[in-house]
Amino acid sequence: MPIKKRSEVRAEFARLGLSYSAWATHHGYNVNLVIAIVNDNDENPVRKCARGASHNIAVQLRIKDGEVQQVAAPRMPVFA
């Protein structure tokens, strides 16, 4: 699949009438992180999306090439 520019992703969201919040919630991501990635600058992005949730978001939005990595759920401490 071809890599998209962030402006193309924004246009697609607008065309579909889809909110960033709905997309983030559906995919289990932080809304503010999705907004920061989509609204970042293509030429000199603040978020490099190199690892973790940022990487997964960028891959799923087709802003970058790669594979979505499954992150293990955080472990809750067991109190005895």
Structural commentary:
This protein is mainly α. It has one domain. It contains four helices and no strands. It has helices spanning 6-16, 20-27, 31-38, 52-60. Helix 3 (31-38) crosses helix 4. The chain starts with 5 loop residues before the first helix and ends in a 20-residue tail after the last helix. The model has no long low-confidence stretch (mean pLDDT 90).
Short description:
With 80 residues, this protein is mostly helical.
Keywords, please?
80 residues; DNA binding; mainly alpha; 4 helices; single chain; DNA-binding protein
Task: Provide the β-strand percentage band.
Answer: under 5%
Q: Residue share in helices?
A: 40-55%
General form: globular
Tell me the count of domains.
Answer: 1
Distance between the termini: 50 Å
Structural class based on helices, strands and sheet pairing: mainly alpha
Organism: Comamonas suwonensis
GO molecular function: DNA binding
Protein name: DNA-binding protein
Keywords: DNA-binding
